[in-house]
Amino acid sequence: MEQSIEVDIDAAPERVWEVMSDVERWPEWAETVTTVTRLDDDSALGLGSRARVEQPKLPPTEYVVTEFDPGRSFTWVATGPGVRTTARHTVEPRGEAGTRVRLSVEQAGPLGKVMGRLFFKGLTDRYLAAEAAGLKARSEQAR
C-alpha cells in the first residue's frame, strides 16, 4: 500500500534539495520527526547512507538509502519482521523558479500491508501532509 503527497514550492530545486537532503535537520521543520541520527560518517547523504528516525507514535526506525539521484531524489528503506517501509523523496523543477516535491511511503510485507491499511493510513496521511508543509515553509524562507 502506497500513500503520497505532492507540494509546489516557490523556491529553486537546489534550495529544496538542500533542505530535504539534510535529514539530520528535519526536526527543525517537520513536527512529525523528533530525531534523525546518521549512522555512518558525516558526509553528505548518498547511496548506502543509514539513519535512525524517531517519530511520535512510531517505533524508532533505521533507514538505508537504496536509490540516490543527487539533486533529484532519494529512496530509503526500513525493514522489520513482516514489514518493509519504503519512503521516496523526489524534487522536480516547476516553471522558472519553482519546485514540485513528491513524498511517498509504501508499506509492504505480510504485516506491512495490514498495519498500513488498518492502523497507520490516517497517521501516514497526516505525517506526509505535515512534512510537505514544513518542507515548503523551510525551503521558501530566506537564508
TrEMBL record:
- Show the InterPro entries listed in the entry: Polyketide_cyclase/dehydratase (IPR019587), START-like_dom_sf (IPR023393)
Lineage top rank: taxon: Bacteria
Q: Could you identify this protein by its name?
A: Cyclase
Its source organism is: Knoellia sinensis KCTC 19936
